[in-house]
Design a protein that fits this description.
The complex is a heterodimer of chains A (386) and B (299). Chain A has 386 residues and is mainly alpha-helical. Chain A has helices spanning 2-15, 17-39, 45-66, 71-94, 100-119, 133-149, 157-171, 174-184, 189-193, 195-198, 205-238, 261-290, 293-312, 328-333, 335-339, 347-374, and strands at 247-252, 255-260, 382-383. Chain A is elongated and about 90 Å long. The chains are: A mainly alpha (386), B alpha/beta (299). Chain A: Keywords: Membrane, Transmembrane, Transmembrane helix.
Chain lengths: 386, 299
């Protein structure tokens, strides 16, 4: 019965124009995103290092003016001299020197020196020239990974990994929430339009809900995977990179860690699967409560924006933070932890919370359905909705 | 098989069903007759638990009641309700709808082709529902219930939108289903059609069954003649006390208490109305309908 009902749901899903538009969006998003961004001429590593060196000269100018009067600035000046020298070596090593290993060693040393400068309070350096500590830690994690895995530093794979992360940064969060809310806005509500056909089917409500979540979840997930695969194929045809052993940075246990692109994608798609289930469960609950397709979208968006609204009003309530965990890209990159000033927010913590929320939603849906069967009519008869 | 005990449904000050009780057995077709808005659909909704009544219970097979979801599913496995045309999926075909019902209740679609053939639906059943006429949709709704093939069927407004040929086709199918031992409830405004296949017709009024017409009983025969009010007035004093004058035109004299001489006397006397048709037989559904609802229709 469950299987037959699921097959019927698949039939309805495939005949629905809304599903066709969602499918089109998910299939085209990644290829179009990669197509657009691969047109741009990216900044090479040498150019990046040259820009860093220029910025470093500017720092010298400010330090030099104060170092004779202030001993702390003099200390920073000494460290900076070493940084400047090492930056020069890095430019040499990725250019004519062609020594990637040394480039990495120098980079790690630069990071240590920069952290020491931070410890000294960046005395004498104007704010706009201070490299944030997070950026230093990120760079350090990346270089450590390259060192441990003995990777070439000039590969285009670094670039393709950035494309992956950027593409997911764009699609996850609000955009994906809207897609899911539109996709799930009629999960149960459509049955109201076909009530006399659907209401008497001999299938338990929770089994019906499971079938719908399974069908819609797999549909969205497969499209996401397919769209990404098409996009990746396009990227690999355009660029030499696309090796999944190259690193991407993630935030974990209150620090930045570099993991391979394949591990990053595994984490991300695992996270997206959980987000899909959670949002479909939320849609089922909103369908049950409001019995209206538009309410599903509006209330869903409202819930997502609650933490932002609260923060704008000056309240940073931790209990609202889990709402934002559905933005897996921001969770992985650590951006969400910084944005919400909550160092607890990393991938596994977010996954645990989202899993807990999903279980809670299942419990609420189950309880509402159970209560409907136990309600005793008083002044009015009770109508069965679904 | 099905027992309704003291069912009451009321909304604030409007009583729709008032302490209604009913027993029905398999192999019966029960007609349900009443003007619109008198509780036919509500009664079907209560039987199928789409509406939980203020009072009363629905009992299947002397034990199953709608107390838990598990029970509801157990009952729903044996019961189908007639879908409304407007609730069909416009983008799906007729066969998709039939397969849904066949799969969900019977677990297979083996009977679907046969039903299509019997109901002459082969020509259109694979097309999308949005291309169907009213009659085609109505036949599809019936075919869906037939495909589910459950022991109990609730058919509300069954003959709506059907032409004479299709009414006959479905009536014939209903009689076949009765032979298979189904319990079928039919609410229909096609009153004379109910006489063809119904075993009983229930007349609902003021929230209860005011009359149960049992076609298996042979003792409820009448001498029937159309009389104007004046003609009836002239005759009234001499008519037996238990006579009926329905809807100000149909005079009915029950035969049960008359001996042969009295029967002949009344037949001879009434034959004198030369332009009037004199018939002997039980009251039909249409005649009972006029009897119970004639005054209401004037309101």
């Amino acid at each position: 019965m469950f299987r037959k009902f699921s097959l019927f749901e698949i039939k309805l899903l495939l005949r629905n124009r809304k599903s066709a538009f969602i499918a089109l969006f998910l299939l085209l998003f990644f290829p179009l995103f990669f197509m657009y961004y691969s047109q741009e001429e990216p900044e090479t590593l040498t150019e990046q290092k040259r820009a860093e060196t220029q910025a470093s000269y500017a720092i010298f100018y400010h330090l030099d003016q104060k170092r004779h009067d202030m001993p702390e600035v003099a200390e920073v000046y000494d460290y900076h001299t070493q940084i400047q020298s090492l930056l020069g070596m890095q430019v040499w090593n990725i250019g004519s020197g062609k020594d990637g290993e040394q480039y990495v060693e120098d980079g790690l040393e630069i990071n240590q020196l920069r952290l020491k400068v931070h410890e000294l309070g960046n005395e004498g350096i104007p704010d706009y020239l201070i490299i944030p500590e997070e950026e230093i830690l990120k760079e350090n994690a990346l270089l450590e990974y390259i060192k441990q895995n003995d990777l070439p530093i000039d590969s285009e794979s670094f670039m393709t990994n950035n494309y992956f992360a950027d593409a997911f940064a764009m699609v996850s969060g609000l955009v994906f929430l809207v897609i899911m809310l539109i996709s799930g806005n009629e999960l149960l509500v459509y049955e109201l339009k076909h009530q006399s056909v659907m209401r008497g089917l001999p299938l338990a409500f929770m089994r019906k809900v499971t079938s719908k979540i399974m069908v819609y979840g797999i549909f969205i997930y497969l499209l996401l995977l397919l769209g990404f695969s098409i996009g990746s194929l396009y990227l690999s045809s355009k660029m030499e990179g696309n090796e999944f052993s190259f690193p991407i940075l993630i935030y974990q246990n209150e620090e930045y860690t570099a993991i391979s692109a394949s591990q990053y994608l595994l984490y991300l798609f695992l996270g997206m699967a959980l987000v899909i289930i959670l949002l479909l469960l939320l849609s089922i609950l909103l369908n049950m409560l409001f019995k209206n397709a538009f309410a599903n979208i509006l209330v869903g968006l409202g819930i997502y924006l609650l933490p932002d609204i609260a923060m704008a009003a000056g309240f940073n309530w931790n209990f609202l933070h889990p709402v934002k965990f559905i933005d897996m890209s921001k969770v992985l990159s650590g951006e969400l932890a910084v944005e919400l000033e909550n160092s607890f927010i990393d991938y596994w913590n977010a996954m645990a919370v989202l899993g807990g929320l999903s279980l809670l939603l299942i419990g609420v849906i189950y309880a509402i359905n159970k209560i409907n069967y136990q309600r005793v009519p008083k002044d009015m008869p009770l109508e069965k909705t679904f | 098989m099905l027992k309704l005990k003291n069912i009451s449904v009321s909304y604030k000050d409007k009583v729709v069903l008032d302490n209604l009780s009913l027993t029905a057995e398999s192999g019966e077709i029960i007609g349900l007759v009443a003007p619109n808005g008198t509780g036919k659909t509500t009664l079907f909704h209560v039987i199928s638990n789409f509406l939980k009544p203020n009072n009363g219970t629905v009992i299947f097979h002397d034990k199953l009641q709608y107390k838990t979801e598990r029970n509801e599913i157990a009952i729903h496995k044996q019961l189908t309700t007639f879908p409304e045309q407007r609730d069909l999926f416009e983008e799906l075909s007729g066969i998709d709808h039939m397969k849904l019902y066949a799969n969900m209740w019977k677990g297979s679609t083996g009977n679907v082709q046969k039903i299509c053939k019997q109901l002459h639906m082969e020509g259109y059943v694979k097309k999308k529902v949005k291309t169907y006429s009213l009659g085609m949709r109505q036949r599809l709704c019936f075919a869906m219930v037939a495909a589910a093939d459950t022991p109990v069927m609730l058919m509300d407004e069954l003959m709506n939108g059907l032409d004479v040929a299709n009414v006959a086709l479905i009536s014939e199918y209903l009689m076949e289903m009765k032979k298979e031992g189904k319990l079928i409830f039919v609410a229909s405004h096609l009153l004379s059609n109910l006489d063809l296949y119904a075993d009983r017709v229930l007349y609902l009024k003021d929230g209860n069954i005011i009359h149960q017409q049992d076609f298996s009983r042979a003792d409820e025969k009448f001498i029937k003649i159309d009389l104007s009010s004046e003609e009836y007035g002239a005759l009234k004093e001499s008519l037996p006390e238990d006579h009926l004058y329905i809807a100000n035109h149909l005079c009915c004299i029950p035969l049960a208490k008359l001996d042969e001489a009295e029967k002949n006397a009344w037949i001879t006397r009434l034959s004198s109305y030369e332009d009037k048709e004199l018939t002997i037989g039980p009251l039909g559904t249409a005649e009972y309908y006029e009897k119970y609802y004639h005054e209401d229709s004037k309101l």
